Structure formats: structure tokens, C-alpha cells
Amino acid sequence: MRVSFICALSLLALCALNAGCDNQQPRSGEMVEREGEPAITYVESDDPKMLAAIDKARKTFAEFQTVFEKAGPEQSYFSVKLLIKEGEHQEHVWTTPVRFEADEYYGTLDNEPYQIKKYVVGDEVHSPVDQISDWMYVADGKLVGGYTLRVVRDSLTKEQQEAFDLNLPFKIE
Q1: Which residues fall within 8 angstroms of residue 137, CB to CB, at 6 or more apart?
Q2: Ranges for the DUF2314 domain (predicted)?
Q3: Diameter of the chain by CA atoms?
Q4: What is the CA radius of gyration of the chain?
Q5: Number of Cβ within a 10 Å radius of residue 66
């Protein structure tokens, strides 16, 4: 199985993570364009940098939850990436936080799924907190968290990074 990262410029100009590739066999690092949707950059599912980013996001999620629940005016663009499934397809998608109930996270889908058709932008989805894929928010104009987003950005050439950064409403340091 391959994992792909979709650089999406939806409301938040974020990146979503998709698993599976509709019988396509792109190489790792290859970009695939989609009409009316963000391009997809494929990364192997066992990529150590991506796995480390997801692990870090899970280990630090309490930080996100604390800031989200007590957000001040200098914090914005709160988003959580989580896994959705339909049949054999799985996608990691960005959501806007709605609420936490016990050990479950509920969010509103921010990106149009690539292969999952049972969900559309605006649907509420949920996941156990310990299974989230990433989290992020912006504090004073700078990205906090966004570990998978950083991995995707770091894989780009310097010129691609500069173009990528121009479309973001925050700075990545």
C-alpha cells in the first residue's frame, strides 16, 4: 500500500493524507494532478519520517487539546487529521475541531476525500483520540504542530517550498 499526501488549499490551506491509489502505481515523491482538487504527492506507507511525524502528533495531542479548549485571539486555524475508511480504502483527512467526548475526537471534514465517497466536505467524522494522524494550529502567525505537513514540505525542492509557502496563511519554522 502507498500513502499519498494531498496539499489542499481549502479554507485553511492544509495538507491531507490519503492511503491507497486507485490502481495507480506512482513512485514515491511523484505528484499526481486532479482536476479541481489539490495535487497528490505519493509517499511509501512505511516512510520512517511520516511514521515518526504521526507518532509525534499522537504523543503531543494533549498539548493541542489544552490550547484548543482555552484558545486566545492569537491562536487560529485549529485542525486535526484523522483516518476515515470505506471498504478497502483509507484516507487521512484534515478536520476542523468540533468537540471531544471521553476519548473520542469529533471534527468537520475540511477536504474532499479522494477515494472515500461516503463523506463530503462539511460532514462530521470522529476517531479515538489515540488514533489521530496529526494536529495543528497557528499561534501568532506561526504553525504549531502540523508534523505530517512539515514532512511533505521538507520533501519538496527549495523552489517548490517557496511556492508552497506563498499559499499558506502562516509561517513554517
Answers
A1: 64, 67, 68, 71, 75, 76, 77, 78, 79, 144, 145
A2: 47-167
A3: 45
A4: 15
A5: 10
Q: How many domains does the chain have?
A: 1
Does a structural domain hold residue 54?
Answer: yes
DSSP three-state, residue 164: helix
| Euclidean distance between CA atoms 92 and 57, whole angstroms | 13
- The single-letter code of the amino acid at 170 is F
Domain that holds residue 139: 30-167
Residue 164's CB: how many other CB atoms inside 10 A? 17
Angle at 81 between CA 78 and CA 85, to 5 degrees: 145
Domain membership flag for residue 15: no
Q: Is residue 52 part of a domain?
A: yes
Q: Which three cell numbers stand for residue 41?
A: 504527492
Q: How many CB atoms lie within 10 A of CB 84?
A: 21
Give, for all 173 residues of the chain, the pLDDT tens digit. Answer: 334 443 333 333 333 333 333 444 456 666 656 666 656 666 677 889 999 999 999 999 999 999 999 999 999 999 999 988 898 888 888 899 889 998 899 999 987 887 789 999 899 999 999 999 999 999 999 999 999 989 988 988 899 889 888 888 899 99
